[in-house]
Design a protein that fits this description.
103 residues; alpha+beta; Ubiquitin-like (UB roll); 2 helices; binds FE2/S2 (inorganic) cluster
């Protein structure tokens, strides 16, 4: 974790939308919308996998590892992908480059 940063940037790959700056600790599902990102969300509680992404890069910090419930779902929907995460379960604490599997 980088204690000197209050904001982090999210970049999308491919770059379909402009990068976004969000506050440390921001929950992605509360800030990413159909207008500012390629992501779609369903349950927002970690059970539907609509928000499945790959975290391609993280800089200036490191995301917390997935909790057990997230890990269990990732083992079902993306078993061979070590970069897979559920966007709705991420609290921002690093600059991220993410790829959305839904598009
Ligand atoms: S929106 Fe359902 S798991 Fe993230």
């Amino acid at each position: 974790m980088n204690p000197h940063r209050d904001e982090f940037i999210i970049r999308f790959s491919p770059p379909t939308h402009a990068p976004l700056w969000l506050q440390r600790g921001a929950v992605l599902s509360e800030h990413l919308t159909i207008d500012n990102s390629p992501l779609l969300f369903g349950c927002r509680t970690g059970i539907c996998a609509t928000c499945l992404i790959a975290v391609l890069a993280q800089e200036n910090g490191e995301l917390l590892p997935p909790a057990d419930d997230e890990k269990e779902l990732l083992e079902i929907v993306a078993p061979a992908d070590a970069k897979a995460r559920l966007a709705c379960q991420i609290e921002l604490c690093a600059d991220l480059t993410i790829h959305y599997y839904g598009k």
